[in-house]
Write a structure and sequence with these properties.
The chain is α/β, with parallel strands linked by helices and 297 residues long. Helices cover 45% and strands 16% of the residues.
Length: 297
């Protein structure tokens, strides 16, 4: 199940080859850091980046920021070496999950999870899959179903690669990708997976970023992957419960806790009819708001 007390609003990619950037990541207001060995690292720097990533994990110091490591695809010359190097760094500080690109089907998840087992990864280290190929989209339900028998614990959308492979246009509103976004959320929620939206490619357009974040939140995503620290403030704000959200959630929880309403399955709260399922949703909202407030304190 998703842990609402540990938000994943902002998931920031940082190149593992850049020690200065990774040092800065320890002070940024992001919920998670993805130490990236794939797209952000040139081929001739892969080995250097792998060693730097392992060193950063051993050093630790990322505080509340959830640590994710993105390896290269297993069909590349670097993927297996990436997994092995990360396994060697685990005694000091483990990443929460390994993020794997170019996953195509359920068999890929089974193979990856098995490899992590053989390399000695602790059971607590999950497997996050990039959903960024046409085959992955077509098989997303079967991929998500692997959550019960493997390490699979999350999806991350990779719309840039999907656009490249399909010719689908990444226009404002992302109309061409709406079916993909909805399918990813449904498959993830049916199997208790984290699901994170893809990146906004334009760094200096806060209106576009806010629109994508608002859309992703409305669709049910936990948060959004980011490519620059300048995108953090907008993303964190959109994916956090608003004061109005918190006030309504408090009212709903209080109404059901009132002894005068004992045994009631539905109540009128602030002009709306709410049921016990709304109380459960309200409790999740309050847990998320508390976690964010405690972090800021």
């Amino acid at each position: 199940m998703i842990d609402d007390s540990r938000p994943l609003r902002s998931v920031l990619y940082m190149p593992a080859s850049n020690a200065r950037a990774l040092a800065k990541a320890r002070s940024l207001d992001c919920d998670a850091v993805v130490l990236d060995l794939e797209d952000a690292v040139a081929p001739d720097l892969k080995a250097q980046a792998r060693a730097e990533l392992a060193a950063q994990i051993r050093t630790g110091g990322f505080g509340h920021r959830r640590l994710i490591a993105r390896i290269n695809g297993m069909d590349t010359p670097w993927g297996e070496a990436d997994l092995a190097a990360l396994a060697d760094s685990l005694p000091e500080q483990e990443p929460e999950a390994i993020l794997v690109p170019k996953v195509n089907d359920a068999a890929d998840i089974a193979a990856l999870s098995g490899t992590m087992d053989r390399l000695g990864y602790r059971p607590s280290v999950g497997l996050w899959a990039m959903i960024e190929t046409p085959r992955a989209v077509l098989g997303i339900e079967r991929i998500a179903d692997m959550a019960g028998s493997t390490r699979l614990s999350g999806f991350v959308l990779g719309l840039n690669d999907l656009a490249k492979d399909t010719g689908m246009a990444q226009e404002p509103g992302r109309a061409a990708f709406v079916p993909v976004l909805v399918a990813a959320v449904l498959a993830a929620r049916a199997n208790g997976l984290v699901v994170i939206d893809g990146v906004c490619n334009v760094i200096d357009d806060s209106a576009l970023l806010e629109a994508e974040c608002t859309q992703a939140r409305a669709f049910g995503f936990d948060g959004k992957t980011l490519i620059h620290p300048a995108q953090l403030a907008v993303t964190n704000a959109v994916f956090a419960p608003s004061p109005q959200d918190v006030a309504q959630a408090q009212a709903i929880v209080a109404a059901f806790a009132d002894p005068a309403n004992a045994g009631q399955g539905a109540l009128r709260v602030n002009g709306r009819m709410v049921e016990r399922l709304h109380r459960d949703m309200a409790e999740k909202t309050l847990a998320k708001a508390r976690a964010i407030a405690e972090r800021a304190a």
